[in-house]
Amino acid sequence: MDGSVTWVVDVSVESTIGATGSLGSGVNVNSELDPKVGMIFHSEDQAYNFYNSYAKRKGFSVRKDHLSRRSDGRIRYRHYVCSNEGSRKEHPMSMTKKSRPIERTNCMARIEFKVNNDNLWIVNRFIDEHNHPLATPSNSHMLRSHRKKLPVQRSNFSRSGTDFGAKYTQNGIQAEADYGEDAGLLLKNQSNCLTTRRLKDLETGDTQFLLDFLRTKQSEDPSFFYAIQLDEKERLTNCFWADMQSIVDYTYFGDAISFDTTYHISGDDIPFAPFIGTNHHKQIVIFGAALLLDETLESFVWLFRTFLVAMSGRQPKTIITDNCAAISEAIATALPDTCHRLCLWNLLQSVSTHLPYLDINFQQEFENFIYDVGSEDDFHKEWDNLISSYGLANVSWFKDLYSVREKWGLVYLGNSFSATMMTRQWTEDMTNLFGNHFIRKLPLTKFIIQYLKSLIHLREKEILEDYDSTQSKPALFVDIPMLIEAAESYTRTIYVDFEHEYKSQLACLCEPVGVDGMRVTFRVYIPQKRCNGLVEFNPTETIVTCSCRKFESMGILCMHALKVLNNNNILSLPSKYILKRWTRFAKDGSVSSGQLATEGSGSQVSLTMRYSCVCRKALAVTLRSAVSKDALDVLEHGLDKIIAQMENVLHNATSS
Length: 656
What we know:
By secondary structure, this protein is of the alpha+beta class. It is built from 19 helices and 21 strands. The strands form four sheets. Strands 9, 10, 11, 12, 13, 14, 15, 16 and 17 form a nine-stranded mixed β-sheet that branches. A six-stranded mixed β-sheet has the order 1-4-8-7-6-5, with helices on one face. The chain has a four-stranded antiparallel β-sheet with strand order 18-19-20-21.
């Protein structure tokens, strides 16, 4: 080899990846061995698996490339390249409805093997430089050449079936009394204990099962939060739980949440009430869950206050629920700074429940009315037409619904952020969540198992989409600065929505209708369509505000605002209109503490809340760093310094 060192890897395929090999010089190497020119392998599988294992550690995927054979058919040369090698070939005559993401970046990283007459595979060339982001260790299993079906993660309790180690008693009262000393956050004081008897009962053994489930989860994860409310007879009545991942997710995506009580478990119709949000990929994320044996005002107030305790006192901007007087009053009491809206998915479901005699035509017309009305005047006109057409003027359900129209009519919701929870897509997502993941009237034991599996499934979907958003970029409609910036910032899903708005603005007409100082007002519209918008534009500060309030309610600019920016030669996307929660970097940076609910800066309540918040922040940082040895080393070194500083502060405080 022209005087170069020859590296002979004389091991099996399996041990090449996971055990110690030997070099020609007698030096031992481990599985962290990097490719080098001159390395020798004894088979194609051995060579490929070695490079693929290296690629997984580094964070890229391998693709088979050039192959050259001798006249007798044996392999002479074989090249393996990074999967981002090359570029997409454009076909001008080929039109597709949906462009595939761009993954090829002309990356030159590769390994080239020369195979001699003895069938030894010798590394002839090795290039290690990449021109694209590499996958993190937590996402490397999603790379194409390493992709395998993720194993369903099971906690210790699932290995012994569905009993969590519970020993059921024939006497239900004895099981309910056996709380023990470690029953989590057991809220039993006079203000939090239910002053009446619970309205529903669990089946025999279910209470013990539920308590064992909560204890087991907390023993596995000390940051697991749960709380129990008792009734006047000291029986378990309501309970809430949230794991660490749910609490961390809330810090990033807890600006708008949905609280739903329509799903029931077991034959006794016990409501399962999850707190749900949407992440930066518009996917469903679960912030916590509750089982309610009592649905009174007192129980809902307890639940919302408990939810705030788990989330370090940070109130959401908006909460979306079904239409229930007790829930509405509880929100006003426990979440005074939160905007309350009614869930359109529940509203559409309720039509067939309350008015089963109405045909499917009304269902479709009612849905179109909800989502397509463009102004408040149109809302009143279309409502009157719909009611009169079907003779519903005297139906009390519709009268009650109209009286609270400001909680569900989209023309009234512009000043409250609801992410995507008031859209048709959210209606479909909720239907799929409960239709595909939960079977109604499941026994509690089976339901808990199904809930945990669903939680894992939802989180795996987010990991996959995180990977796809970092390892590929969308095919742009046209290469202009605004779309380039949007593609570099937004997740793939949100970019598609933004590009749709940008394309729509091309069909809009824009005309100035007024000037007030530095502000110019434009009317933006599409002829013969009900999608008008009045846009105020301040060119000095590049501030744009539209009457449709899409940015305020969903967090991306509407076609009306984009049309005004385009007409005024604003070709870049102002950073103030890129909401971090919709970007690929939504989870970057420190975990926000939120606005803590306190009773004076020096009170014990404030100190306790701060302590709870700091604990969760520390656990969240540890959770994020767990995928990288280097990150854990940095964290541990930093903690040592912080501990020394803290001890110094405590020493000085004690001395003074």
